[in-house]
Each structure stands twice: as C-alpha cells, then as structure tokens.
Design brief:
The complex is a heterodimer of chains A (300) and B (249). With 300 residues, chain A is of the alpha+beta class. Helices cover 70% and strands 8% of the residues of chain A. Chain A has a four-stranded antiparallel β-sheet. Chain B has a single domain, classed as P-loop containing nucleotide triphosphate hydrolases (Rossmann fold), CATH 3.40.50. Classes of the chains: A alpha+beta (300), B alpha/beta (249).
C-alpha cells in the first residue's frame, strides 16, 4: 500500500473516530442537513408535480386537430407531415383512436374500469401540433383558421389564451422553484457550515497538533470532510424517507381535495434516480460545509 | 556545519502606534548536534524566534536557514514537510488529552503515511526511549506533568527530526521533574539530535548541559557563547563573549 493510500486510510479512520467520540454533534449536524434537504426536496417535489399536472392538462399542446370519422390513416399522416413543415411548428403527431383511448385509460389513474366496454372507434383520429418557442402569440390562431378549411378536419381546438396564461403561470412557478431551491440551498450551506464549525471548534486543539507535527492541509481537513460526507448522505437519506412518508400521508389528501385538477393523473413521488441525486446533493452539502468550516484552522 | 542559521531577522507584532518589535536584527548559528540554550525574560522574543523556525510566523526581514534551506519564504504547502524535520515541545504539552501516549506519538508518524505496523513499532520505541511504558492504556490526562512532557518529547522525536525545539518545556514542572526532563533532553542531544531550548528559568540554565548559550532581551540577541559550555557562563573569562544574563549567582 503506498503512502497516499495509507494516509487516506488514516484520514477515514480518524473521521470515523471523530464521529464516534462526539455522537451528539453528529446527530445535530445530520438533523440540520435532514431539515434542509427536506425543505429542498419539498420544493423539488411540488415543482415537479406542478409541471406534471400542467403536462397532463395539455398546456404544451396548443393546437389539437380533430379529423372527420372514417379518415384514412394515410391522409391523416399526410396532413401531419405537411403541418410539420409549416414555419413556426416544432412538431405534429397523429394520435390514432387506440392511442387516444390508451391515454384516457392512463389518465384515469386508479379508476380505469370506467372505460370498460368503450370501443376506441368512438374517439376521432387527431393531430397534436406543437409550436416552436419562437412562434408569435397569434400564430396558433392563424394556423387554426387555415386548418379549418381542410376537408378532412372536423374541429380545431386552440388552447389559446388559457394555455398562454397557464404557460406563464408555469414559467413563473418554475422561476419561483429555482429561486426557492437556490435560497434554500444557500441557507442549507450556511446552517450546515455553522453546525460543523461548532464541531471543528471543539476539536481545534487536535487540528493545531496535527499542523504542528507536519500534517498537510489535506490530512488535517480530511477527517472533517469524511464526517461532512457521512452526515450529508445520512441527513439527506433521512430527508428522503421523511419526504416519502409525508407524501404518502398528504399526497392522497391533496389529490382528493383537488380532484378536478388531478383527475387526469395522480401525483407522483421522486424517482429513484432523483432520490439518489438528492442524497448526493446532501453529501456534497456536507463536504462543502465541512471544508468551509475547517478552512481557517487548516491555514498554516 | 550549522543546522540552523538566522541572519538579520526582524519581526514585530501589531501595527501603527501599537507596533511592538519582537525580534530586532537577530543573527545566530547553531551547529549540528549542539545543545543550545536560549534564555531571556518573558517577552524577550524567545517564543517568537521558535515560531519563526517552525514557520508559524514569517519574518519581516532576514533569512532563516534550517538544514541549509531558507524557510523564511517557504510556500504554505511546503511548511508541513519542514515541521516533520523540526520537532517541537511546549510548556502546555499540546497533547490529545483523551488519547493514550502511544496514540499521541502515532499521530506524528501517521502524517508521514507510514504503514500501521511501522507506526506502532516506532511509537513504541519512541516511548521506550523516554522511559515510558508503551503499552499503557491510560489517557495522557491521567499522567503526571513530567510524564506528559515525556510523551510530547517522544512525539517530537518519533519522526527523527534533525532539530528539536523546546519552548519552556519545564514551565509546568517542579524542580525534580525539571531535572529529569533536562537529563532526557541531554540524552536526546547525545543521540545526535540538535536541541534548542528556550527558557526564562534559571534552574534550567543551571542544570542543562548546554553547549551553546544565547540570550535575548527586548528582541535583541545580547549574548551568544557559541561553542562555550555552561561552566564558562558561570565563570566568564575575559575572552568570553557571553554575558551572564539570567544566570543565578
């Protein structure tokens, strides 16, 4: 084992020993990180579900073109292809009756049985048209007017002003979420730094001795970084667990209270990769907090 | 050959009207293997001088050479490597009070990245060299002052430094323990380590087997008996440059 690896083993061992020697400080730091990550996780969860609901409302499909019964699939595809080439259109997709029924079933969430016996043929073939971000606000209305003159078009629904307002609301919500996440993240870093600084202050004599006997900055800082990493990861894991418990308790109540809004789909919790990212973020927070807390003592 | 050489070293604390000179144009040389005694009253600049040698402070002017290397302008990242070559003991011991003597000594070896078995073996030897039981499980706070200072000396010597700095190492000890620690430092010197001992205690001057005596007053080096033993200080000859400052009658 080379010297660098041996030093790493000593650093980890001293980090673990430090945690064992001061369990109360560890619990305090971990709880602080857990509370911070709970706040951050709640912001992420609320924003994510708001986005999900908005998607289900169809805000991102400003024009839906319903075609006449018995339309030939080739004719529908040909119109969709033509639409895709129109300036200002980002995409157009043909939705067959079977796919429309499948979406409807999925949208009913826990009650798909409501559509038992319903045949896909009762639903019309449609084309969903999405506009480019750069398109003008009245482009949708102009395009809809043109489409209404097409012989195979039965009806054109433009989300119009409502969609625009919903988009604006969603954009505002997104900005608020990003701002809140940044604010909470900064607050978390400050609180974690303050908490870990207490632990560092309690062990300043040890730091002074390590410097005195020739410990490098990395060797002196290392154990505190290990502690921060463990505290951050455990705190964030605790936060995810609490968030999940809270979601399980509150989520159904919210869904029931706002049944109209959530009729098209149920609320969802963070995915496993998102949970891992949150835990990783907590660990990074712990590392940054401990590095900042120990910095002034490490200076030779 | 000089292991330690200071040339025109000046250092002060504070700023403006509160500025106070701690060292003024100090130049000295200490030969390899010497037992140097740096004496002077409190506030004379002894601790500042040792801090400069440990690179805990930077001089305003002058050069400080340890083993022929100028450390006054050392990069921060290089300071730990200097300290591995310069052992230090202090009046307040600076030990981990809840750790055992062996754990305290091991700390100085762990920073070198030595394997656990080597660390353990060398820590045991260092403790045995200062006549302490390497296997004691008692935390150092349960040891006497003399034993704690022995642990500190063992830790300072464990890494086999070229020079050992001792800042008032007997300041907290009674006369019997003071003599024991001075004997120990004398034997350390005989084994080849250069010792620089700073003290204001006349008892230390009386009992230390110093080969080189220096005296500081108000930050100025007022006496330097390079090569002269304590006996010369006690009865100075006309040729001697030593001033009998702080020497008991």
């Amino acid at each position: 084992m080379n010297r660098a690896l041996t030093s790493l083993v000593y650093i980890i061992a001293r980090g673990v020993r430090g945690m064992v020697q001061a369990p109360l400080v560890q619990v305090l730091a971990m709880a602080t990180i857990a509370v911070c990550m709970l706040l951050l996780g709640t912001v992420v969860l609320v924003w994510q579900n708001a986005q999900s609901i908005a998607d289900r409302w169809g805000v991102d499909v400003p024009i839906t073109v319903y075609l006449v019964d018995e339309v030939e699939p080739a004719a529908a595809s040909e119109l969709a292809s033509r639409l895709a080439t129109v300036a200002g259109v980002s995409s157009s997709e043909t939705i067959a009756p079977e796919l429309a029924l499948q979406r409807l079933v999925e949208g009913l969430g826990d009650d798909p049985g409501l559509l038992d016996g319903v045949d896909a043929d009762v639903l019309p073939t449609s084309i969903e048209v999405r506009l480019a971000d750069s398109s003008a606000s009245d482009d949708a209305a102009v395009l809809a007017a043109q489409l209404r003159s097409e012989p195979i078009v039965e009806e054109v629904v433009v989300a119009g002003a409502w969609a625009e307002r919903a988009e604006q609301l969603l954009a505002t919500l997104r900005q608020v979420a990003i701002g809140a996440a940044a604010l909470v993240g900064f607050a978390c870093l400050t609180i974690v730094w303050s908490t870990i600084r207490l632990a560092v202050y309690a062990r300043r004599a040890e730091i002074q001795i390590l410097r005195l006997v020739g410990g490098t900055a990395a060797f002196v800082r290392g154990p505190f970084v290990v502690e921060g990493l463990v505290q951050g990861a455990l705190g964030a894991t605790l936060a995810v667990a609490l968030l999940w418990l809270g979601f399980a308790e509150v989520g159904s109540l919210v869904a029931d209270a706002f049944a109209l809004a959530f009729a098209a789909g149920s609320l969802r919790f963070l995915s496993p990769p998102e949970c891992i990212v949150l835990v990783g973020f907590g660990a990074a927070l712990g590392v940054l907090g401990s590095r900042a807390a120990v910095a002034r003592y490490v200076e030779a | 050959m000089a292991i330690l050489e200071l040339c025109g070293v000046t250092m002060s604390y504070g700023s403006g009207r509160a500025r106070k000179a701690a060292l003024a144009d100090v130049s000295l040389r200490i030969a390899e293997g010497a037992f140097a005694l740096l004496q002077g009253p409190s506030g004379a600049g002894k601790s500042t001088l040792l801090k400069l040698i440990l690179a805990m402070e930077r001089p305003e002017h002058g050069t400080i050479r340890v083993a022929d290397r100028d450390i006054a302008r050392l990069r921060k990242s290089s300071i730990p490597y200097l300290r591995r070559n310069v052992g230090a003991v202090f009046q307040d011991f600076k030990l981990l009070s809840d750790a055992t003597p062996r754990e305290n000594v091991a700390l100085a070896l762990q920073v070198l990245g030595l394997p656990r078995a080597h660390v353990d073996a060398r820590a045991r030897k260092a403790l045995a060299d200062v006549e302490l039981d390497p296997d004691t499980r008692r935390p150092v706070r349960c040891l006497s002052g003399g034993e704690q200072q022995r642990v500190a000396i063992a830790r300072a010597l464990a890494g086999e430094p070229a020079i050992l700095l001792a800042d008032e190492p007997t300041g907290n000890l009674d006369p019997r323990l003071t003599r024991e620690i001075l004997e120990l430092l004398g034997s350390v010197c005989q084994r080849g380590t250069t010792v620089l001992l700073a003290t204001h205690d006349p008892l230390v001057h009386e009992h230390a087997a110093a080969s080189h005596v220096l005296a500081l007053t108000d930050g100025r080096l007022v006496a330097d008996s390079e090569g002269l033993a304590r006996a010369l200080v006690a009865a100075p000859t006309p040729e001697s440059t030593v001033e009998p400052i702080g020497v008991p009658a």
